[in-house]
Amino acid sequence: MSSGESVALIVQKFGGSSVATAESIKRVAKRIVETRKAGNEVVVAVSAMGDTTDELIDLAHEVTPIPAPRELDMLLTAGERISMALLAMAIKSMGYDARSFTGSQAGMITDAQHGSARIVDVTPGRIQDALTEGAIAIVAGFQGFSRESRDITTLGRGGSDTTAVALAAALGAEVCEIYTDVDGVFTSDPRQVPLARKIDRITSEEMLELAAAGAKVLHIRAVEYARRHNVTLHVRSSFSNKEGTYVLNEAAAAEAAKKDGTVEEPIISGVATDLSEAKITVVGVPDVPGKAAQIFKIVAKANANVDMIVQNVSAAATSLTDISFTLPKSEGQRVLTALTAEHDEVGFQSLQYDDQIGKLALVGAGMRTNSGVSAKLFEALYDAGINIEMISTSEIRISVVTRADTVAEAARVVHTAFGLDGDEKAVVYAGTGR
Amino acid sequence: MSSGESVALIVQKFGGSSVATAESIKRVAKRIVETRKAGNEVVVAVSAMGDTTDELIDLAHEVTPIPAPRELDMLLTAGERISMALLAMAIKSMGYDARSFTGSQAGMITDAQHGSARIVDVTPGRIQDALTEGAIAIVAGFQGFSRESRDITTLGRGGSDTTAVALAAALGAEVCEIYTDVDGVFTSDPRQVPLARKIDRITSEEMLELAAAGAKVLHIRAVEYARRHNVTLHVRSSFSNKEGTYVLNEAAAAEAAKKDGTVEEPIISGVATDLSEAKITVVGVPDVPGKAAQIFKIVAKANANVDMIVQNVSAAATSLTDISFTLPKSEGQRVLTALTAEHDEVGFQSLQYDDQIGKLALVGAGMRTNSGVSAKLFEALYDAGINIEMISTSEIRISVVTRADTVAEAARVVHTAFGLDGDEKAVVYAGTGR
């Protein structure tokens, strides 16, 4: 698709590990030039080189423990400024015109929320001018500009994916290619499930569920943006010319399947696992209306991102119940402190904290029309002797919590049970591409 | 002057060595806050940290031998973005409001000449707003914005001094303080002339001559800008609170001298030396009209910065003459090549190249009204057995060329002869402050 016959506008995004050194910048430049040579117009969103962003954050913390958000954004945006200028130079030295643009110059208009700004408008006039004049436009990922405060903003971690998608939407690009160091989106993490297969096509709904369940290849926010604006994503490797994974809206996916003669879509798209969460159990909560609301108001005030919630059936004799929920480990201490502070108000007996859990999620649009998926999942886990501690479901996802040390085995048996195994072992690259 | 009683606007400039580490940034922040605490409004121009600019240039050269100028400017401006954001953070963490501004945000409007842009306008509306709201404004030195091309530009090496002076002029600052790691401008380089004294006041004309003659403490362009716009410069140490050197226009200098009762100004302000030049002699040039013009047209086409020119009296017998001139060593090869290419056209006999020369310049406004200065200079050098190879004069300067290895001794004897020696040895710091 990247080397098509007709003139198309293609947006390409390269992450920090793809532009970590002068050598890799030259490699990426060559790749971009190939796409241009094939007759396409090209817009590139690029992240800061390698660990630049982390290094700048460290530097800020050497100066002050709590950097002023406006100034932190000013600081961090130096990162993409460096990578985009070098990339544009590299392309120009190959005889192709290229121009770099800051978020502000590219028209990435955001609100004034430093560190996690939301895009409110995209006005890519200068990008269009550059394309019209035959140039390749290189845009700083991750950054924007607030009209309100007239200040530089950043979109938050992984914001370069969002930059790429927003540009693709605003410019009406044929496709937004997200380059990474794996071949695409896999049915499961190949490091855990050796027979994992690359997925050729996936709907954005499924991709969202996979990303939310721990698949790290794409950022949720970028997938959401792509879904809302009907942008076709193509997740592919910067190390090969192989087609990767297309992330499409449902209509486009159905259309493509019809063309292929693969209308009978697989029930399950993928199996994701996540070891980054912990479980908090509030033990002995009085089983009266409003208690759950009270607890989760405290949790929300502690700025925690709760994932799964389970409330036990209360024991008739005591009228007490237990409420368990999962959340990122990094937020555990904060929430425990907040709950302990309100102990008397809520009136629970005790708190349990468990950071040895693993989460497994089964995702697939085909689940909607296929009953028996959960039964099959539970059976596969039972056969492997793996105990399920929590269950939660959405329309196209089933998640279960197990012990952390059984989750890899769980992923393998579920992968096999749902017929996802490929014929050969997947190639695993060193990095994660992000 | 920095801690005055009345509210004044003070512009302060800190170079790269003053902000090389997180620690030194905190030290500079403290210094700025002290000036603010004393009741002044403060605007700061800051360079990139330590060797950042050189490192970015190296990176560019790893990508391509000839970086595109627009992209090189985009790249380099990341440097001040980092230092200014860190400095603003550091100040904010001390409880004072501070905001960083890029050259573009600060209204440093330049032409579109990447790498050596000239300032065409300064529109510091945002700086004024920040001051009105009680904030300290931190401005990226060295950078500007072209209205014409809508692109980021840089002012060339040492441009941060110019940024500071331009802001001081546009904002009507009381003084523009240039912080360095020496105590001010000295009558000679203390590393060469141990009895060199700090100059309390100097006219901008004298400062220009000293800078042109090799004194590195201030950039010529910044001094010129200050003179044209009547900005008072104060060159001082960032390591002490001592007054440094005021660079004033003639009227202000005379005014200050009257106040002090030091109206009888010294004849000589300082002695500068320079080892960065080489001498080219065009031997055996036909002594006919237009030959010198022909030669220097060739030299100019090679983009050389010629300093001194001497033409020998032609030998009557041959009607041939020699023309010598000095220029930066770095330009020597280029000019030799250019002249050699035009050998037949010009009709000279040979070229001599000598990079073992040293230049000594004696600068002083008092020279205008005092005869005998050159005689005294030549006598002092003669007494020390130092041979003079070339001489050139301006209204307030006499320069001579000697062998490179005698120039330090020459500076010492001339310094003594003109009564410039101080009572004690000057303190010499490690770096150069630039």
From TrEMBL, chains A, B:
Catalytically driven reaction(s): L-aspartate + ATP = 4-phospho-L-aspartate + ADP
Function: Catalyzes the phosphorylation of the beta-carboxyl group of aspartic acid with ATP to yield 4-phospho-L-aspartate, which is involved in the branched biosynthetic pathway leading to the biosynthesis of amino acids lysine, threonine, isoleucine and methionine.
The protein's name in its UniProt record: Aspartokinase
Domain of life: Bacteria
GO cellular component, as recorded: cytosol
UniProt: ATP binding residues: K13, F14, G15, G16, T180, D181, R191, K216, V217
GO molecular function annotation: aspartate kinase activity; ATP binding
Signal peptide per UniProt: none
Pfam families (UniProt xref): AA_kinase (PF00696), ACT_9 (PF22468)
Entry keyword Transit peptide: no
Domain ACT: 280-356, 362-434
Keywords (A to Z) from UniProt: Amino-acid biosynthesis, ATP-binding, Diaminopimelate biosynthesis, Kinase, Lysine biosynthesis, Nucleotide-binding, Transferase
GO biological process, alphabetically ordered: diaminopimelate biosynthetic process; homoserine biosynthetic process; lysine biosynthetic process via diaminopimelate; threonine biosynthetic process
Binding site for substrate: T53, E80
InterPro entries: AceGlu_kinase-like_sf (IPR036393), ACT-like_dom_sf (IPR045865), ACT_Aspartokinase (IPR054352), ACT_dom (IPR002912), AKii-LysC-BS (IPR041740), Asp/Glu/Uridylate_kinase (IPR001048), Asp_kin_monofn (IPR005260), Asp_kinase (IPR001341)
The family this protein is said to belong to: Belongs to the aspartokinase family.
SUPFAM superfamilies reported for this sequence: ACT-like (SSF55021), Carbamate kinase-like (SSF53633)
Catalytic activity, EC: 2.7.2.4
Enzyme class (EC, first level): transferase
Pathway noted in the entry: Amino-acid biosynthesis; L-threonine biosynthesis; L-threonine from L-aspartate: step 1/5; Amino-acid biosynthesis; L-methionine biosynthesis via de novo pathway; L-homoserine from L-aspartate: step 1/3; Amino-acid biosynthesis; L-lysine biosynthesis via DAP pathway; (S)-tetrahydrodipicolinate from L-aspartate: step 1/4
